[in-house]
Amino acid sequence: PDKSIVTAGALTYINDMIYTAGGLNIFSDKPLEFFKPDDGEVNGRNPELVLVSVEPAMKWLTEEKYREMRPVIASNREVVIVVENRERNLAYFGPSFIYTLEFLVELLKQ
Q1: How far apart are CA 11 and CA 67, in angstroms?
Q2: CA 2 to CA 29: how far, in whole Å?
Q3: Contact (CB, 8 A) for 28 and 20
Q4: β-sheet bridge partners, residue 80
Q5: Between the CA of residue 98 and those of 79, 84, 108, what are the distances in Å?
Q6: How far does Cα 99 stand from its chain's mean position?
Q7: Is 25 left (phi over 0), alpha (psi -120 to 50) or beta?
Q8: Which is nearest to 25 in space by CA: 41, 7, 3, 37?
Q9: Helix or strand or coil: residue 51?
Q10: Per-residue confidence at 1, pLDDT binned at 50, 70, 90?
Q11: pLDDT tens, 6-59?
Q12: In contact, 47 and 8? CB cutoff 8 Å
């Protein structure tokens, strides 16, 4: 699938990280790994926050650009763009997992 628009299901470390940070993945009930979400289903699940992880090569993807590309999902919701780096990395698990978890805890407190 188009990896720029995949989401995390229940069978992912990202789902676990969101839960550990105090949040709830809107797809925590889907026994899947990563999959391409349907915009209508995302909208119907009414997320409070849209967390968008982008590789450094895609750092052009700003919040404004994301809102233009995905208006159904981004409308009236907080959108946080996370450009992957050594301290914030949602794409790969490893030592940066701890820093990313700390970032999510602080983000979800707001």
Answers
A1: 28
A2: 22
A3: no
A4: 51
A5: 22, 14, 15
A6: 16
A7: beta
A8: 7
A9: strand
A10: very low
A11: 899 999 999 999 999 999 999 999 999 999 998 899 999 999 999 888 888 888
A12: no
List residues bridging with 49 in a β-sheet: 78
Residue 109 in tokens: 């407190």
- For 21, the token pair is 């940070």
Phi-psi region of 46 (alpha: psi -120 to 50; beta: other; left: phi over 0): left
Residue 80 tokens read as 């946080």
Nearest to 14 by CA among 72, 92, 108, 79: 92
Alpha helices, DSSP H, located in 51-95: 63-69, 71-74
Burial class from Cβ neighbours inside 10 Å (0-12, 13-18, 19+) for residue 106 reads: exposed
Token pair in block for residue 83: 């450009």
Nearest to 34 by CA among 78, 75, 93, 74: 93
Joined tokens for residue 49: 């926050």
d(CA 89, CA 69): 23
